[in-house]
Amino acid sequence: MPLHLIHGPPNSGRARLVRERLEAALDRDPILVVPTLDDVHAFERELCAAGAVLGATTTTFGGLFRLVASASDAPAPLELTPAQRRRAVAVAVNERHGRLGPLRRSAARAGFALALSRLIEELQAGGLRPADVEAAAGTLESSAYLTDVAALFAGYEAVRERAGLADAHSVAGRAIALLRESPAAWRRPVFLYGLDDLTGNQFELLAALVARGEVTFALPYEEENAAIAARTAPLLERLRGLGVASETRTDPQPAHTDDPLLFHLERSFGRAGAERRAPRGGLTLLRSAGERGEAEAIGAAVARLHAEGAEPGEIAI
Q1: How many distinct helices (H) and strands (E) make up the chain?
Q2: Which of 62, 147, 155, 287 is the most buried (most CB within 10 A)?
């Protein structure tokens, strides 16, 4: 099935449209995907503001991978914890240290395993395997370094397989493969909000979902705003390439911002000839000298808000 797109600038009601469409699909067990766990909790509070809501799941992309991967009859493997993953990488470095080339000296230093773990995670997020890195080593200068990286990457996967465990990225691969091989295993509508970029694995899963179910994707985009357009235009074009059933553009509305001055700043910041507005309580400037002074000024402002009754969880820095 094609994709439903919603796009517009900040304060244009994209979240409201997503919430309305999600509530209309509650009888089909919809899933809402947002960037972070904080966003999960915030959206759930909005959904339940008027009372309990049953039939919907709010999660991150990692949670979506796990939900799709567990949709088959085969039991999903247990995942490595972050500490176990770092240990698996360290074991791989120790096992393959004697066969390394230019990375041998670096591999003996403290901190190498942590840096390698982060590199492997980035490679996996892009949908790459050790064989892909090894193949790239044959086409680039300094290929010996990539050969070492490929060997360590393969070593980590070997350690993980020996432990009989998965990681977030092997779960992602399992989810993508399931959608491609068993399309009937997934029927839940998926809504995505707040995402302005996707990794290789995330886009592959999204493409597989679009081909087999109903997907609604809401993202920030405004052609007239160069900063927003530069960030999200490539993603918007890739999404359009999947086949679009409907495309809804939302316009900025002052009612979606608590303070008119903040709305004016968002619409006018950086634009030539913008109208000046008188200052008011929605914006406070803190002047300080140096990083410590800045931190102390922010700390004092937070303490003041808390003393006036603001909930700590509602204060962002």
Answers
A1: 13, 6
A2: 155
Q: Which helix (H) or strand (E) holds 248?
A: strand 244-249
In sequence order, the 6+-apart residues with CB closer than 8 A to the CB of 52 are none
Q: Which helix (H) or strand (E) holds 219?
A: strand 215-220
Render the burial of 205-230: b for 16+ CB within 10 Å, e for the rest.
Answer: bbbbbbbbbbbbbbbbbbeebeebbe
State residue 254's pLDDT score: 80
Dig out the tokens for 29 from the structure. Answer: 């067990």
Rama region for 127: left / alpha / beta (φ>0; ψ in -120 to 50; rest): left
User: In 41-102, where do the E strands start and end?
Assistant: 57-59
pLDDT of residue 297 exceeding 60: yes
Q: Is 90 exceeded by the pLDDT of residue 95? A: yes
Phi-psi region of 273 (alpha: psi -120 to 50; beta: other; left: phi over 0): left
Q: Which of 42-46, 52-56, 197-201, 278-282 has the lowest average pLDDT? A: 278-282
| H-helix or E-strand spanning residue 5 | strand 3-8
Structure tokens at 118: 């982060």
**Rounded to two decimals, what is the model's pTM?**
0.78
Q: Hey, which of 58-62, 219-223, 226-230 has the most confident mean pLDDT? A: 58-62
Quick count: other Cβ atoms within 10 Å of Cβ 15? 19
Token digits for 261? 């001055």
CA angle 133, 178, 66 (to 5 degrees): 85
CB 116 within 8 A of CB 96: no
CA distance 58 to 107: 41
Mean pLDDT computed over every residue of the chain: 88
